[in-house]
Amino acid sequence: MSDQKDLRTLEILLVEDNPGDVDLTKAALRRCKLSLRLTVATDGDEALRILGRGGGHADAARPDVILLDLNLPKKSGVEVLAEIKQDPSLRRIPVVIMTSSKAEEDVIRTYDLHANCYVSKPVDLEQFRHVVKSVSEFWFTLVSLPSAEPAETVCTS
Question: 17 and 73 in contact (C-beta within 8 Å)?
Fold first, then answer.
């Protein structure tokens, strides 16, 4: 684990409309031995407001990882993913698709939009907890994440 990860609380944005899945995710993350802070958006529009620090979210932390469901009200997870990956200030944030869908077309569509990972949520309670814990430990202990704020682009001509 890098020194950067040891010095700060790691931020997760969970975009999930099912309260039961939110509770299960929170419980699984509590089992991790990492300093994590979870922000929850219950629909796609709210997720984009949080990421853009608008609509009452001016103090929202930039997430280190986004856990994104596909089946969301107002704006689908696919639409949210597309907007994230088109925005230069957000596109480097890893997006993990966590959804009940096992449809091949969903897998292909999200990877085409540059999702970083696609995980089908298991229905079994213990398996669900294991998946969430494994995903968070992978992204926060094994992977090198980009810094919290994107570097400035410098053009020379």
Answer: yes
What are the tens digits of pLDDT across the range 138-151? Answer: 888 887 777 765 54
Specify the amino acid at residue 39. Answer: T
Q: Is the pTM of this model over 0.90?
A: no
Q: What is the pLDDT of residue 57?
A: 78
Domain count, the chain: 1
Give the CATH number of the domain where residue 15 resides.
Answer: 3.40.50.2300
Residue 149 lies in a domain: no
pLDDT of 24 strictly over 70: yes
